[in-house]
Design a protein that fits this description.
This protein has about 775 residues and is an alpha+beta fold. The protein is about 15% helix and about 25% strand. Bound molecules: heme C and calcium ion (2 copies).
Length: about 775
């Protein structure tokens, strides 16, 4: 039934030349469209009904019409589901479905896919973005907020844009220099840079039309990694930094001139500082305890999903986790802590909240609701409802009513130890705090902080009623690293407040923990889950309303997660960190085509058509949260991480692979140890390194950033200039002059000299024995 109705909603793929109109005029559609919307559409616009009257009134009407430009809902034909020749935004269409109606590439001919063109993105860091294509021009965003405008048929460069910034900002970026896409509207390309600048560029030339600093406080750990969202004549942008010391908000700017239309704070401020910014925040503040550590920030940052819903003229925002993670620090004594980990619907015109749905109340676990959402129309309990399909970090598949914000379905898709189900009547989870509240001792919490789902986009195929997404069923051990009452606010720095060990490493790590802690962990009922199966990482096809798996295929490891594209012709495209790009049969999951690109892929592929030729494109590049821990199965480990844009078409050629990296060499000899180095100094250095450096320098071979156990003599000589003087700041090595003094840097250096000496001895030995020099450590560091 659902399938039949939605099939009717989908226009058949248009064959032949020519591009379609991006935003069609609203035409009442016969099938499946709600009566309410039909009536809305048939109403004459105010401007039309008034212009018949006298000239004075006509003038008045003209003024009204102008005002109407910003006040009336933009016209988007929501009866057409899925992208066509164009791919309007990183999610493809108005619903952000990552679904294409194009069918020139089909199950029958997909085997003929080959490379049409490739483009060197010129960087070696993370790529999480899906390009946009408008009328034959591709606009891709790269790390830091770079933009590449390319001829979509040939890859010829039209222009590029690199945002200039003080790279000290890199210190506030927990999860790499990620960027998840740009927006195109009104002849302009809009990109948000890591440092908080929102740039509006001329679509033809790339020239800056205007830019604005979106950050309210430069002394706190804000960054931007998400895509701007266009909603009529405004553009909405959020930010990241819940792990630091931020208070989340999104801001709407008028695209025409950059003036601020509204700002929505996702959590309250300290009530001692005066009234809240809005009535919804006055309501929210009652869900935070009186002892809340407002000084540390509170979190709730909207770092990815922002989706404009044209049917209700509302902007839906997914908000982030609490900061610090432990509620015992953040809001001692409890409370839901609104609007953390929530979907909030904001009136586009006024910036006021229409409804909210909190997916993880009382957050202790970094279970954000920032994961991408897909809009849809779906039969639920016999009625056709406008819905949001949402799979946040917390392990449930939610189908939420877009009109009321009420959950219509909530099914667990992985093991969850913080809640064992959902009460759809009350809209609340059934908490299982006995297996997840770690304020009194360690708990093994499922899902882990990387989430059952994360930013990796899902695709929804309404013709098959199937949601395709990478799903990670993994947990993490969580425990307090100190007394919550004594937590200090680390300014513009990580304030996560909890220690984390992923279940992928837990059995190995448990052996090294203090015996009482180990005994406590082994007494947990969830210890059995770890022993049975520490994690499952797989691409799944799921039914949204039941959450049931139709098919699943395993990924190469828990860090092998990927974005997805689905097409009406029954294909699902996805990459892999191993370098493989694959097409599958939507019905069975069976592989129908693949190519080894030699480049690690995490971003979602997309598809478009120019002059009657359908293309499939994907950006390659490893990185993101925990990026230092490059798994050995990654293409980036074998071949480096040169970022590429790969574009395929039927009858294309082979995909050139980057050359293999040369074999590892033993670490070079370190300089002589400081004469006054003591074991205490080395221990201090080790601890300071873990606290300050390890988030970027994982000290693994072939990690994206230098392995500091292998530094060259000249870098040793300039160590202090690098760490305190900011010598390499322009390349993303920030200065620590505000956090460390010369004696602390010396302690870190002494520990690194010692470590390098030991590593060199070990590697010379391995080399003599003809063994590989791969000296890795456990991936126990969480930086999500
Ligand atoms: C925000 C990420 C980040 C953090 C945190 C960080 N670094 Fe770096 N570091 C970098 C980057 C990026 C480079 C490479 C710079 C380049 O290519 O010029 C680098 C390079 C270096 C180098 C030069 C290595 C070489 O072989 O050329 C040293 C030394 C160094 N970092 C020390 C430290 C120390 C010590 C800390 C902690 C106090 C630290 N870094 C923390 C990002 C970081
Ligand atoms: Ca969006
Ligand atoms: Ca987080």
């Amino acid at each position: 039934m659902i399938r039949r109705v939605l099939k009717a909603l989908i226009a058949p793929p248009v064959h032949g030349r020519g591009s379609e109109t991006r935003r069609r005029a609203a035409t009442p559609s016969r099938s499946g469209v709600g009566l309410k919307r039909l009536i809305q559409r048939l109403k004459p616009t105010p401007a039309l009904s008034r212009t018949r009257e006298g000239s004075v009134v006509a003038l008045f009407a003209a003024a009204l019409a102008l005002a109407a430009c910003s006040d009336s809902a933009p016209q988007v034909d929501t009866s057409v589901y899925g992208a066509g020749d164009n791919w309007d935004n990183p999610g493809g269409d108005w619903a952000e479905s990552h679904f294409s109606r194009l069918g020139d590439i089909s199950q029958e001919n997909v085997g003929e896919l080959g490379l049409a063109w490739e483009y060197d993105l010129g960087t070696e860091r993370v790529q999480e973005s899906t390009p946009v294509v408008i009328d034959g021009v591709m606009y891709a965003s790269g790390n830091l907020g770079r933009v590449y405008a390319l001829d979509a048929a040939t890859g010829a460069e039209k222009w590029t844009f690199t945002p200039e910034m003080d790279m000290q900002i890199a210190r506030s970026a927990c999860c790499d220099w990620a960027n998840r896409g740009l927006a195109v509207a009104d002849g302009k390309v809009i990109t948000a840079a890591l440092d908080g600048q929102l740039y509006v560029l001329d679509m033809e030339t790339g020239a800056v039309v205007w830019n604005v600093d979106t950050f309210v406080d430069k002394d706190r750990g804000y960054t931007i990694t998400g895509a701007p969202e266009v909603a009529g004549d405004i553009v909405v942008i959020g930010n990241a930094g819940a792990e630091y010391d931020t208070r989340g908000y999104v801001t709407a700017y008028r695209i025409s001139d950059g003036s601020e239309a509204w700002r929505f704070w996702t959590i309250p401020h300290d009530p001692a500082e005066g009234p809240q910014e809005s009535p919804e925040l006055e309501a929210a503040v009652t869900t935070w305890s009186e002892d809340t550590r407002w000084d540390i920030g509170g979190g709730g940052t909207a770092w990815d999903a922002i989706t404009y819903d044209p049917e209700f003229d509302q902007v839906i925002v997914g908000t982030g986790n609490g900061g610090p993670y432990p509620q015992a620090i953040r809001s001692p004594g409890g409370g839901d802590n609104l609007y953390l980990n929530s979907l909030v619907a904001i009136d586009r015109k006024t910036g006021a909240m229409k409804w909210h749905f909190q997916e993880t109340p009382q957050d202790n676990w970094d279970l954000t609701a920032t994961q991408p959402m897909v809009l849809a129309q779906m039969d639920v309990n016999g009625a056709s409802r406008p819905v949001i399909l949402h799979t946040p970090k917390n392990g449930f598949f939610f189908v939420v009513d877009r009109e009321s914000g009420k959950p219509l379905a909530a099914n667990a898709i992985v093991r969850t130890s913080w809640a064992d189900g959902w009460n759809l009547e009350t809209g609340k989870p059934n908490f299982t705090l006995e297996t997840s509240d770690y304020s009194q001792g360690p708990k093994i919490v499922y899902p882990a902080s990387p989430g059952a789902r994360n930013w990796y986009p899902a695709a929804f195929d309404p013709t098959r009623n199937t949601y395709f997404a990478h799903v990670l069923d993994m947990g993490n051990l969580m425990f307090l690293s100190g007394d919550p009452a004594e937590a200090v606010h680390e300014k513009n720095f990580l304030n996560a407040g909890a220690a984390i060990i992923f279940t992928s490493d837990l059995e190995a790590a448990a052996a090294t923990l203090p015996p009482p802690m180990r005994a406590a962990i082994e007494a947990e009922p969830t210890w059995q889950w770890v022993k049975d199966n520490p994690f499952t990482s797989e691409l799944r096809a799921m039914d949204p309303l039941t959450g049931k798996t139709k098919w699943a295929v395993p990924s190469a490891g828990w860090q092998d997660r990927q974005g997805v594209l689905a097409t009406a012709s029954g294909l699902v495209f996805h990459g892999s960190v191993t370098g493989k790009l694959t097409a599958r049969d939507s019905e069975t999951g069976e592989e129908v085509w693949s190519v080894d690109t030699g480049s690690s892929i995490m971003a979602a592929p997309m598809t478009y058509r120019v002059d009657g030729v359908q293309y499939v494109a994907v950006q390659t590049g490893w990185g993101g949260g925990g990026w230092g821990f490059l798994p050995g199965y990654a293409a980036a480990y074998r071949k480096g991480n040169a970022n590429r844009l790969l574009v395929y078409k039927l009858g294309g050629g082979p995909t050139p692979q980057p050359a293999d990296l040369p074999p590892l060499e033993p670490a070079p000899a370190p300089p002589e140890q400081y004469a006054d180095a003591t074991p205490e100094m080395l221990a201090t250095g080790s601890a300071l390194f873990t606290a300050n450096c390890s988030i970027c320098h994982s000290n693994q071979p072939r990690a994206p950033l230098p392995d500091l156990r292998r530094i060259a003599p000249n870098v040793h000589a300039g160590f202090e200039q690098v760490v305190l003087g900011g010598l390499f700041k322009m390349n993303g090595m920030p200065s620590f002059a505000d956090r460390l003094d010369a004696s602390q840097v010396k302690a870190i250096h002494a520990w690194l000299i010692d470590t390098q000496g030991k590593l060199r001895a070990r590697e010379l030995q391995l080399q003599a024995e003809g063994k590989p020099l791969d000296s890795r450590s456990l991936t126990i560091l969480s930086s999500y």
